[in-house]
From TrEMBL, chain A:
Alphabetical UniProt keywords: Membrane, Transmembrane, Transmembrane helix
Transmembrane segments annotated in the record for this chain: 12-33, 256-275
The name this protein goes by in its record: Uncharacterized protein
Species this chain originates from: candidate division WOR-3 bacterium 4484_100
From TrEMBL, chain B:
Keyword terms of this UniProt record: Membrane, Transmembrane, Transmembrane helix
Annotated TM spans: 7-24, 36-55, 67-85, 97-117, 137-155, 167-184
Keyword Membrane: yes
Protein name, as recorded: Uncharacterized protein
Length: 280, 209
């Protein structure tokens, strides 16, 4: 009985070390646990997949910061690869001041995989403060809100931006969202007021809150956390669009083992608690 | 193993390990990294606010292009600082009133449309939902969940008769929601740990790609 009761007194350092090992080992020696694609991720993939070079650009709003990078940055890279493979133009922007540095990393890395040219195939508008005011302003005129891109180049001198005036000229908005302003702000103002098509990729913490918007059709699709990012990476690879490094998919073995271990600890803790209560 | 030659990767790895050291116990290295983060964040946001907000939206149009109309938002902004002068502190109400008025006017119709009308429409059982048996089943479960949860939060009538089992059913749906949220939170935290360990094993130690 003492053994069972001692289960409730495992030192927290031992738990941390066990979880660290469960994460580190599968990253070094992958197991290859298969990734099942959830319907809401498939919906967003299909919404982009049905677009083509003749469609308007996809607007990727990178509303996140380095803290949520492990979850949202792989989504950004995977969606950019998908768009470029389909010859869809991309507009990038951020409603978060900490977003542009992360977007720049993707702008430096992804277009060269597909030999895409800045200004013709993608544009980075940068960060603008104001959240809802920015979204409302872009619904009237994007160049009034962003007269220049992130690098100070006038918008009108970028070839792909000459035909883009407001949301009517954009095929799809995808907000990679770690909080507020984020996908909810895009839904509130771009979707409900201007009837723009909005999809989102969110951190796992906020995924449960986003599901009702997919069910109601307000969001065209949803990518949830690192797991969702890995699903999107798998879809991009399955279609033969890119063979690039898939950061989120690499982490899925570690994620699965980590979850398994936490479940084991929850069961152990509850068993120990149950027996210690019975004894009292 | 292929250690990074980049000094900034080493700085980043060192600070990551400093923060992780808190898992053992609170210590000097953790506090150093924490204070550094707070200081750098504050400085970063001041610089970003100046370069992305104040300079392009106020300094250039008002002081460089001579656009006089920008005096109005400038004056409104300055009124925020009257809080530091007790005799004039009441003037802060003007910009706050403006912001609340504008914010409410913009947000209320959009919120009503997004969170109430469209969500209610999404909950209703429409014939399209029954084109497939599984989507029809989920639509029914969704409707039952919404109604029973709303009844749980209906406090104007004593829980007797049909209200009692319905409210109890609502508790089950609420608990399922909490469970899903907690599960996702665990998933998010593990993801963040994976991200940091991928950085330590990849760019820093060069063990993985």
């Amino acid at each position: 009985m003492k053994v069972i009761e001692s289960l409730t007194k495992i030192p927290r350092q031992a738990i941390f070390i066990t979880i660290a090992l469960a994460i580190i080992i599968p990253l070094i020696v992958p197991i290859g646990i298969p990734v099942n694609v959830m319907p809401q991720t498939q919906k967003l993939f299909d919404a982009i997949d049905e677009l083509g070079p003749e469609s308007g650009p996809v607007l990727l709003s990178c509303d996140f910061d380095p803290q949520s990078m492990p979850e949202l940055y792989p989504m950004l890279v995977a969606i950019m690869r998908h768009c470029f493979a389909r010859n869809i133009k991309i507009m990038l922007m951020s409603l978060w001041p900490t977003g542009p540095g992360l977007v720049e990393m993707a702008v430096d890395a992804v277009p060269k995989e597909f030999h895409k040219v800045y200004g013709q195939d993608l544009t980075f508008l940068g960060y603008k403060a104001g959240g809802s005011a920015v979204i409302l302003g872009m619904g009237e005129s994007i160049r009034d809100v962003f007269p220049t891109d992130y690098y100070g180049t006038p918008i009108d001198s970028l070839a792909m931006m000459r035909s883009v005036k407001n949301y009517k000229d954009i095929s799809l908005i995808v907000s990679l969202s770690a909080g507020d302003p984020g996908y909810r702000t895009w839904l509130l103002y771009a979707q409900s007021r201007y009837e723009a098509r909005v999809g989102t990729g969110v951190t796992a913490v906020s995924a449960a809150d986003a599901y009702p918007f997919v069910e109601s059709g307000q969001l065209v699709g949803l990518i949830s956390g690192m797991k969702g990012a890995s699903e999107y990476e798998v879809l991009v690879k399955r279609k033969g669009y890119s063979e690039g490094i898939r950061k989120a998919a690499q982490g899925m073995d570690a994620q699965s083992l980590g979850h398994l271990l936490i479940m084991v600890f929850i069961i152990i803790g509850n068993v120990g608690y149950f027996f210690s209560r019975r004894r009292r | 193993m292929n250690l990074s030659p980049d000094i900034w990767v080493w700085v980043s790895a060192f600070l990551t390990l400093c923060i992780f050291s808190f898992l053992f116990r609170d210590n000097l290295l953790y506090r150093f990294a924490e204070h550094l983060f707070v200081g750098i964040s504050a400085g970063y946001f001041i610089a970003i606010t100046w370069h992305n907000v104040i300079y392009p939206n106020l300094v250039i149009p008002l002081f460089k292009q001579g656009n006089i109309i920008f005096i109005i938002p400038f004056a409104f902004g300055i009124l925020y600082f009257t809080r530091f002068i007790p005799k004039l502190a009441y003037l802060i109400r003007l910009p706050i009133a403006f912001l609340i008025g504008w914010g409410s006017g913009v947000a209320i119709p959009a919120t009503f449309q997004t969170y109430i009308i469209k969500q209610t429409q999404g909950t209703l059982l429409v014939p399209d939902a029954f084109l497939r048996w599984d989507s029809g089943l989920w639509a029914v479960i969704g409707l039952v969940g919404v109604v029973s949860t709303l009844i749980y939060f209906f406090f104007s009538k004593e829980r007797k008769g049909i209200l009692k089992p319905t409210a109890n059913l609502g508790i089950i749906f609420i608990m399922l929601g909490f469970g899903a949220s907690f599960g996702y939170t665990v998933m998010a935290r593990i993801s963040l740990l994976i991200g940091r360990i991928q950085f330590l094993l990849g760019p820093w130690l060069g063990i993985i790609k």
